[in-house]
Amino acid sequence: MVRNVKSWTVDDVANWITEEKLDFDNFRAKCVKYEVDGPILLEISLKDLRDDFGINPGAKRRKIFKAIQKLKEGTKGRRLAVFHHGIHYKQHVDMLHHPRPIIVRNPSFNAPRFLP
Fold first, then answer.
1. Is the model's pTM score more than 0.85?
2. How many other CB atoms are found less than 10 A from the CB of residue 86?
3. Separation of alpha carbons 87 and 101, rounded Å
4. What whole-number distance in Å separates Cα of residue 84 and Cα of residue 64?
5. What is the 3-state secondary structure (H, E, C) of the chain?
6. N or C: which terminal CB in the chain sees fewer CB atoms within 10 Å?
7. Sign of the CA dihedral running 68, 69, 70, 72
8. Parallel, antiparallel, or unpaired: how do β-strands 78-84 and 100-105 relate?
9. Which residues, 6+ apart, have CB-to-CB distance to 7 below 8 Å?
């Protein structure tokens, strides 16, 4: 599945729910009915899961909520180190493809790697 959650359609959300085995209390059907796309999915709270989606008991709500939070963390991006012509570039690569490079001179090695 495409990890750019902010561009997910209702069908993408429904497929994700199935893949993650999160279809508690007809959560998938309710997301389709309420037209929940990627940006809306990322805004769903524990209260929304209880009140709007009728997810009970609390353990099921928390499992769905944690999965949504994991998706949300994934949209923040990762730091990628890139080495080119002896210059070490630290580049923030976010899910919307808006890189912000930072140049660090004299790298100790010449290979791409992910930074924390």
1. no
2. 9
3. 12
4. 42
5. CCCCHHHCCHHHHHHHHHHCCCCHHHHHHHHHHCCCCHHHHHCCCHHHHHHCCCCCCHHHHHHHHHHHHHHHHHCCCEEEEEEECCEEEEEEECCCCCCEEEEEECCCCCCCEEEC
6. C
7. positive
8. unpaired
9. 38
Residue linked to tokens 């524990």: 46
Q: Any idea which residue has 């561009």 for tokens?
A: 7
Q: How far apart are CA 11 and CA 44, in angstroms?
A: 17
* pLDDT tens digits, one per residue of 52-95: 999 988 899 999 999 999 998 876 654 444 444 444 444 444 43
Q: Which token pair is 95?
A: 């899910």
Structure tokens at 24: 């508690």
* Residue 96, C-beta contacts closer than 8 angstroms, at least 6 positions apart: 4, 6
Question: Which has the closest alpha carbon to 106: 89, 91, 86?
Answer: 86
**Residue length of the chain:** 116
